[in-house]
C-alpha cells in the first residue's frame, strides 16, 4: 500500500456522516455524481478506490456505503460479530490483520485506521441489531401485514397459504417476495433515522419496488409493450410499488385500506404503464371476476 492509498484510506475512514461537506472539499464532487460515469471512473482510478472492492459502477455510491466498503475491505472475519466479552478489543484484532495481511506499517497511523474501522463496523452492527429487534413488534402492530400492499407476510418458518397465480404480483413465482423487510419511511440518506418511529415492515416485493426516484418515461417505454410475463420481477415491483403509493395504499374500487392489494390494467389492450394501471383489492377483484 503506497502513501497515497494510505492517505486516502485515512480520510475516507475518518469522516463522519455529518462531514460530507468536508469529504467533498477533499475529493471534489465526483463521487456523488452518479450520472457522470466517466469522472467516477477517473476518480476510482486516481485514488485507487478499487482496493475497496467498488467495481460495480452502476451501483449508487452513497458516502456511508463507500465508507463501510472501505472498512470491510480491511476487516478480518474475526472482527465481525465481535464478542465483546473477549479480553482483547476489536480494534486490536483489526490492527493485527492490517499489519499481517495488508502490510501496514506498525505505527500510530495504523492504530488510528484500525480504530476508525472498528467504529464503523461497530456502528453498522448496532444499527443492524436494532432494526432486527424491531421487526417482530412492528409486524405485530401491522397485524402481520405489509404496510404498503397489506399482504400477509411470512414470519419465521410459518407457511402462508399458496399465493395466487397473479402475474401482477408474482409471489407465486418467488415465495421470498413475501418475506418481511424493514423499511425506513424517511431514507437514511435523507436524514432518516433508525428510530422505531421511522421504521415499518414491508413485503420484499414492495421494498424492492420502492425507490425515491419517479419512474421516467424512458423506463416505462422500455417495458410498456411487453407481455407482463416477460417483464422482470424488479420492474413489476417498481410499477407496483409506485402505483399503490399513488392510491395511498387503498383499493381504487372499495377504497378500503386493510385488504391485500394488487394492480390491474385499466384497458387490457393498453400498455403496462402507471397511467393504465389501477389498484384493486382481491375482494373486489374476486367480485369482478365472479360476475
Ligand atoms: Zn407489500
Ligand atoms: Zn376493494
Would you identify the regions where 5 or more consecutive residues have pLDDT less than 50?
Answer: 26-60
Helix content: 40-55%
Shape: elongated
Q: How far apart, in Å, are the first and last alpha carbons?
A: 72 Å
Can you write the helix and strand succession as a string?
HHHHHHEEHHHEEH
Rg over alpha carbons? 23 Å
% residues in beta strands = 5-15%
What would you note in describing this structure?
With 291 residues, the protein is mainly α. The chain folds into 2 domains: 3-126, no CATH class; 142-290, no CATH class. The chain has 10 helices and 4 strands. The protein has helices at 3-14, 20-27, 37-47, 63-73, 90-102, 108-141, 204-209, 217-223, 233-246, 282-290, and strands spanning 180-184, 199-203, 261-265, 277-281. The strands form 2 sheets. A two-stranded antiparallel ribbon has the order 1-2. Helix 4 (63-73) crosses helix 6 (108-141). The longest helix has 34 residues, at 108-141. It starts with a helix and ends with a helix. Bound molecules: zinc ion (2 copies). The site of one zinc ion has 8 residues, from strand 2 and helix 7.
Summarize the SSE layout with pairings.
Blueprint: H1 3-14, H2 20-27, H3 37-47, H4 63-73, H5 90-102, H6 108-141, E1 180-184, E2 199-203, H7 204-209, H8 217-223, H9 233-246, E3 261-265, E4 277-281, H10 282-290
Helix pairs in contact: 1-6, 4-6, 5-6
The structure holds zinc ion (2 copies).
Amino acid at each position: 500500500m503506497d502513501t497515497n492509498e494510505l492517505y486516502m484510506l485515512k480520510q475516507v475512514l475518518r469522516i463522519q456522516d455529518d462531514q460530507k461537506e468536508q469529504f467533498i472539499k477533499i475529493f471534489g464532487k465526483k463521487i456523488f455524481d452518479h450520472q457522470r460515469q466517466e469522472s467516477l471512473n477517473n476518480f476510482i482510478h486516481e485514488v485507487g478506490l478499487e482496493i475497496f472492492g467498488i467495481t460495480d459502477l452502476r451501483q449508487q455510491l452513497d458516502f456511508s456505503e463507500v465508507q463501510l466498503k472501505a472498512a470491510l475491505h480491511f476487516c478480518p472475519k474475526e472482527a465481525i460479530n465481535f464478542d465483546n466479552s473477549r479480553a482483547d478489543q476489536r480494534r486490536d484484532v483489526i490492527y493485527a490483520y492490517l499489519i499481517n495481511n495488508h502490510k501496514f506499517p506498525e505505527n500510530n497511523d495504523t492504530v488510528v485506521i484500525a480504530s476508525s474501522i472498528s467504529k464503523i463496523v461497530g456502528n453498522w452492527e448496532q444499527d443492524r441489531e436494532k432494526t432486527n429487534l424491531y421487526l417482530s413488534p412492528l409486524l405485530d402492530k401491522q397485524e402481520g401485514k405489509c404496510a404498503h400492499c397489506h399482504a400477509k407476510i411470512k414470519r419465521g418458518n410459518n407457511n402462508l397459504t399458496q399465493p395466487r397465480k397473479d402475474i401482477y404480483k408474482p409471489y407465486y413465482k418467488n415465495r421470498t417476495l413475501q418475506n418481511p423487510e424493514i423499511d425506513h419511511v424517511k431514507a437514511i440518506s435523507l436524514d432518516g433515522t433508525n428510530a422505531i418511529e421511522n421504521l415499518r415492515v414491508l413485503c420484499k416485493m414492495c421494498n424492492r419496488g420502492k425507490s425515491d426516484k419517479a419512474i421516467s418515461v424512458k423506463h416505462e417505454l422500455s417495458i410498456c409493450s411487453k407481455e407482463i410475463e416477460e417483464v422482470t420481477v424488479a420492474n413489476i415491483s417498481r410499477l407496483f410499488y409506485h402505483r399503490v403509493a399513488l392510491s395511498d395504499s387503498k383499493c381504487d374500487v372499495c377504497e378500503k385500506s386493510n385488504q391485500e392489494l394488487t394492480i390491474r390494467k385499466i384497458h387490457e389492450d393498453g400498455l403496462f404503464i402507471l397511467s393504465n394501471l389501477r389498484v384493486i383489492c382481491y375482494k373486489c377483484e374476486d367480485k369482478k371476476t365472479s360476475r
